[in-house]
Amino acid sequence: MQPKTLALVAHDHKKNALLNWVKAHQPTLQQCKLVATGTTGAMLSEHTGLAITRYQSGPLGGDQQIGALIAEGSLDALFFFWDPLNPAPHDPDVKALLRLCSVWNVPVACNEATADMLVTSPLFLSADYQVQKPQY
Q1: How many C-beta atoms lie closer than 10 Å to residue 9's C-beta?
Q2: Rounded to whole angstroms, how far apart are CA atoms 123 and 6?
Q3: Is 37 annotated for ligand binding?
Q4: DSSP letter string over 87-118?
Q5: Cα 116 to chain center, whole Å?
Q6: pLDDT at res. 90
Q7: What are the Cα distances from residue 51, in Å, to 7, 98, 105?
Q8: Does 62 carry a binding-site annotation?
Q9: What is the CA radius of gyration of the chain?
Q10: Spatial CA neighbour of 22 closest among 108, 121, 123, 116
Q11: pLDDT tens, 3-20?
């Protein structure tokens, strides 16, 4: 079985929350292929030692690179700790990324509570569970 591919993304004010969450779930996450936007990926890799493929920073196209993974059917889940109280200049890109998760039925967690529920589900690493992809 191929490892699940997970994307890790966080806005500036949520990077520490994502780092703490990744550390808490590191034994599970190290079984997965991890990708992240630039700054977030660098921080996570530096503080956890996890192998993380880094794309561009979100505002420079990283959100769209992760969106391309979704559209290609190459992403199994998105963990995006976004900051709803501080609008970012690339909000349209963020909205497009979240929209793609809905279009292609990709599990997405936008806060710690949902991320905890998702990563601790017995279905999370199960080879028996296959997410149903819509046929358009």
Answers
A1: 25
A2: 15
A3: yes
A4: --TTHHHHHHHHHHHHHTT--EE-SHHHHHHH
A5: 13
A6: 72
A7: 12, 24, 26
A8: no
A9: 14
A10: 116
A11: 999 999 999 999 999 999
Q: Would the annotation count 61 as a binding residue?
A: no
Of 2, 38, 3, 40, the C-alpha closest to 21 is 40
Amino acid (1-letter code) at residue 65? Q
Residue 5 is labelled as binding a ligand: no
- Return the domain boundaries, the chain: 5-113
Closest CA to 11 of 89, 64, 74: 89
Half-sphere exposure in the Cβ direction for 3 (13 Å, CA): 11
**Residues assigned a catalytic role:** 63
pLDDT for 118-128, tens place per residue? 999 999 999 88
Tell me 134's DSSP state: P
The residue ranking higher by pLDDT, 13 or 58, is 13
CATH fit for domain 5-113, picks 3.90.370.10, 3.40.50.1380, 3.30.565.10, 2.30.30.110: 3.40.50.1380
